[in-house]
Specification:
By secondary structure, the chain is of the alpha/beta class. Helices cover 27% and strands 16% of the residues. Bound molecules: 1-deoxynojirimycin (NOJ).
């Protein structure tokens, strides 16, 4: 059966469930809270929700350490709450996308518990290696979160591989039984009615034979030996043919270190194995490869990232558009400016929403939430942040190390969503939320923005509705202008019936704007803007304009 492409006309919203909305008053976000907010999402123009993991999990990595793939965590309301959300979403014409995390499980998963005891058929479900006579680890790979990628297991008397936290052992995808388990998981949720999967670090699932040492990579040593590994396409093809092709669903793959060229091997509409890709290039304009190695924001680098994906995928594959998710600090604090909070939040919204692809909005992004500055490391919850704080060789004093987290921590994006100026930002009625709220909720919250027609929230609503009304955005041709400008990002989208020009200023001061050849602003309609500015030849700080010409 031909797979439909309904996701091309949609805008998705990502929910990181612990911090979205607490519906039962225990201090932690849950699916009852999501159910309460379905109409809010619908009003925003959202057509589908991607849930970061909501399965039973010890929570060593915010739920990305799964202990049971075929259930919903009791703290999120269990299956009862999930079915309510699923039905509620479908009644509103919204899709539900689950996170498929199969590079690794939790060490508390039954498979791992049995594997460490060599109980069949689980003995080879994970990647085990004996101790070496020279006392060295099986190879020199680093984990992404907690030092070396190998941990000794006292029960089995062997090392197991974990590319992430110690409590996240990697599955052995070369074992056909493990691949059958993955297919069972896919079928289980698809049969229940879910509409797709976001596949967590899926490009890591096939490791190089022999797990060789890595002599190339200084950070996350080992990556070339497991990212885009030898059998990755074979395994993805198997999941597609055996399961996904039999359902009207879509997949979006998370892929660190991927260029558009490499991505096409996965997402080419002719013969790809998945539908869209979450690439990281758009997240690297103010860091080297990871937020933890910050560099000054470089607009040209950001533009180059967006443009190359637009140009190179055109006609061959479909982009996933995003500027925020649960793994990166807040975008206004990074590519925008907290000093021009409202202007820059709106500008960044329009900057990416009018490109070709399926946009994803991350919780709190639509109200312009910004980074968090807790006074102690004890307020952080993320395993990566806590490890980095304690092991940073670069930053010696406690203060320096804490400040680094203010800029780099994933927890910047994981504080509870600020619904109102009530206690705990209206996130929970409990005395203490599971994670502290950003104290700026008194002035930065959804209720206040609901009342203010000039708010970021209203701007998102308007921009999303506009996007959906413009055929050239979804199916037109992208063209960038003045790529070398260090002040502006300018692009057009054009189809047979219309064209738009999107002009974004990334300047903290007024800047001159020369009109673009072929775009007569006198004949255009200004369909979206974020500041009052009578002058067309000058852009205010962080101004954005979207012009439309109908043919
Ligand atoms: C990528 C996820 O987005 C991140 O949150 C998680 O920590 C790692 N994969 C490991 O699952």
């Amino acid at each position: 059966m031909e797979r439909k492409r309904w996701y091309k006309d949609m805008v998705f919203y990502q929910i990181w469930p612990r911090s979205f909305k607490d519906g039962n008053g225990d201090g932690m976000g849950d699916l009852w809270g999501v159910y309460e907010k379905l109409d809010y999402l619908k009003d925003l123009g959202i057509d589908g929700i991607w849930f970061s993991p909501i399965y039973p999990s010890p929570g060593a990595d915010g739920g990305y350490d799964i202990a049971d793939y075929m259930d919903i965590a009791p703290e999120f309301g269990g299956m009862e709450a999930f079915k309510k959300v699923l039905d509620g979403a479908h009644e509103r014409g919204m899709k539900i996308v689950m996170d498929l995390v199969v590079n690794h499980t939790s060490d508390e998963h039954e498979w791992f518990q049995k594997s460490r005891q060599r109980i069949e058929p689980y003995t080879d479900y994970y990647i085990w290696r004996p101790a070496r006579p020279d006392g060295k680890l099986p190879n020199n790979w680093d984990s992404n979160f907690e030092g070396a990628a190998w941990t000794w297991d006292e029960v089995r008397q062997e090392y197991y591989l974990h590319l992430f936290a110690i409590k996240q052992p990697d599955l052995n995808m070369d074992n056909p039984l493990v691949r059958e388990e993955v297919k069972k998981i896919l079928r289980f949720w698809l049969d229940m009615g879910v509409d797709g999967f976001r596949e967590d670090v899926i490009t890591y699932i096939s490791k190089k034979d022999g797990l060789p040492d890595d002599h190339l990579f200084p950070i996350y040593k080992g990556m070339p030996n497991y990212n885009h590994g030898p059998r990755i396409h074979q395994y993805l093809q198997e999941f597609k043919e055996d399961v996904l092709d039999h359902y009207d669903c879509f997949t979006i793959a998370e892929a660190p270190l991927v260029s558009p060229k490499l991505a096409l091997d996965y997402i080419d509409e002719e013969n790809g194995q998945i539908d869209m890709m979450i690439q990281f290039q758009c997240q690297c304009a103010d860091c080297l490869f990871t937020d933890y190695l910050p560099t000054p924001f470089d607009l040209r680098k950001m533009k180059q990232a967006f443009s190359s994906w637009q140009y190179k995928l055109k006609g061959r594959a479909w982009n996933a558009l995003y500027i925020e998710n649960h793994d990166h600090p807040r975008i206004v604090s990074r590519y925008g400016s907290e000093d021009f909070w409202k202007e820059s939040a709106k500008m960044l919204c329009a900057m990416y929403l009018f490109q070709q692809g399926t946009p994803f909005v991350y919780q709190g992004q639509e109200i312009g939430m910004i980074n968090w500055k807790p006074q102690s490391i004890d307020e952080y919850r993320d395993v990566q942040t806590i490890w980095n704080y304690h092991h940073s060789a670069l930053h010696k004093s406690e203060e320096e190390r804490l400040k680094r987290q203010w800029r780099s921590a994933r927890d910047n994006a994981r504080t509870p969503v600020q619904w109102s100026s009530e206690n705990n930002a209206g996130f929970t009625t409990a005395e203490t939320p599971w994670m502290n709220v950003n104290p700026n909720y008194t002035w930065l919250n959804a209720a206040q923005q609901e009342e203010d027609p000039d708010s970021i929230l209203h701007f998102y609503r308007k921009a999303i509705a506009l996007r959906k009304s413009l055929s050239c955005v979804r199916h037109g041709v992208y063209q960038e202008y003045r790529p070398l400008s260090g002040e502006h990002y300018i692009y057009s989208m054009e189809d047979d019936t219309q064209k738009i020009l999107v002009v974004c200023s990334f300047c903290k001061r007024d800047s001159n704007f020369r009109s673009i050849k072929g775009f007569d602003l006198n004949t255009a309609q200004l369909i979206l803007g974020n500041v009052d500015n009578p002058r067309t030849d000058l852009l205010k700080p962080y101004e954005v304009r979207v012009y439309l010409w109908n043919k």
